[in-house]
Write a structure and sequence with these properties.
Blueprint: H1 9-34, H2 45-99, H3 106-129, E1 131-132, E2 135-136, E3 145-148, E4 158-161, H4 171-175, H5 179-184, H6 189-242, H7 246-271, H8 273-276
Antiparallel strand pairs: 1-2, 3-4
C-alpha cells in the first residue's frame, strides 16, 4: 500500500469498523433495555410485520375476553333474579296448598290471600327492575343479545343469546293473568287446589329458562377457555419472534464494546500515518 498524505486509507477503514462496532453496541443496548429483539422494521422487516399483526390480535383477544365476561355476568344476573322469583313462587305454592285444605276459615284464607298478593307484587317488581347495563332481562322486551367473543366479523366470532332467555317473568308472563286473578283462585279450597297445577307450570317455566341460561353459561365458559388458550399461544409465539435473548445480547454488547475500543485506539494510530511521510521529505 502506497504511503500518501491526501488519502489516509487506513483511517477510513478503521472509521468504517468503528461505526459498525458503535452501531452494534447501540443495537445491543437498545435490545437489552427494551427487552425486544425487534424494535424497528429495520431490525427484521418480516418479523416486525408479523409481530405487529400478532400484537393487534392480542389486543382484540383481550377485548373478546372482556365481552365474554360481560355476557357471563349478564346471564348470572338473570339467574339470580330467577332464583328470587322461584323462592316467591315456592312460598306461593305452599300458601296455595294450605288454602286447599278445608280446615282454614275465611280469616285464615284472607291472610293467605294477602301474602300471596304481596309476593306476586314482588315478583312483578323484580321482573320490572331486572336489567344489565340497560338491557331488560325479565319484562319481555329484550331481543337477541349478540356477544362478540372472537376477533373477526363472522358468525364464528359471535355467540347469540336467544331472546327466549329474557321472556316476561312477571305475573302475566308466568300465569297469563293478573295478580288479582291469581290471588282470587286461592280464596276457596277447591279453586286453590286447582291453582296448584298452574303454579307448578310457572315454576317449571322458570326452571326451563334457568336450565337454558346454564347451558349458555357453559358455552361462554368454554369460549373463555378457548380465548385464554389463544392468548397464551399467541403470546408465546410473539415472545419467540420479538423478545431479545438477554444472554446473547450481553455477549454481543461486550464484543461490540471491545471492538469499539480497539477501533478507537487504532484510529488514533491510523490518523498519524500521513505524518510518517514527512520523515521522507
Amino acid at each position: 500500500m502506497a504511503l500518501t498524505i491526501n488519502t489516509n486509507l487506513s483511517s477510513l477503514i478503521v472509521q468504517q469498523n468503528l461505526d459498525a462496532a458503535t452501531n452494534s453496541l447501540t443495537q445491543s443496548i437498545e435490545r437489552m433495555t427494551t427487552g425486544y429483539r425487534i424494535n424497528n422494521a429495520k431490525d427484521d422487516a418480516a418479523g416486525y410485520s408479523i409481530a405487529m399483526d400478532w400484537q393487534t390480535q392480542l389486543g382484540s383477544l383481550d377485548i373478546a375476553a372482556q365481552n365474554n365476561s360481560t355476557g357471563i355476568d349478564l346471564l348470572s344476573t338473570a339467574e339470580e333474579n330467577y332464583a328470587l322469583i322461584t323462592s316467591h313462587l315456592q312460598r306461593i305454592r305452599d300458601l296455595t296448598e294450605q288454602a286447599a285444605n278445608g280446615t282454614y276459615g275465611s280469616n285464615s284464607l284472607d291472610a293467605i290471600n294477602s301474602e300471596i298478593v304481596a309476593r306476586l307484587e314482588e315478583i312483578d317488581r323484580i321482573a320490572a327492575n331486572a336489567e344489565y347495563n340497560g338491557i331488560a332481562l325479565m319484562d319481555g322486551t329484550a331481543t337477541d343479545v349478540t356477544l362478540q367473543v372472537g376477533i373477526y366479523g363472522n358468525d364464528n366470532s359471535r355467540i347469540v343469546l336467544d331472546a327466549e332467555l329474557f321472556e316476561a317473568a312477571n305475573t302475566q308472563g308466568l300465569f297469563t293473568s293478573d295478580i288479582q286473578d291469581v290471588a282470587d283462585a286461592c280464596t276457596t279450597p277447591t279453586t286453590a287446589a286447582d291453582q296448584l297445577t298452574v303454579i307448578d307450570t310457572a315454576i317449571t317455566t322458570i326452571s326451563d329458562r334457568v336450565t337454558a341460561i346454564g347451558a349458555y353459561q357453559n358455552r361462554l365458559e368454554s369460549a373463555s377457555t378457548a380465548i385464554d388458550v389463544q392468548i397464551e399461544n399467541l403470546t408465546s409465539s410473539l415472545s419467540t419472534i420479538r423478545d431479545a435473548d438477554v444472554a446473547e445480547e450481553s455477549s454481543n454488547y461486550i464484543q461490540a464494546q471491545i471492538l469499539q475500543q480497539a477501533a478507537a485506539t487504532l484510529l488514533a494510530t491510523a490518523n498519524q500515518t500521513p505524518s510518517i511521510a514527512l520523515n521522507l521529505v
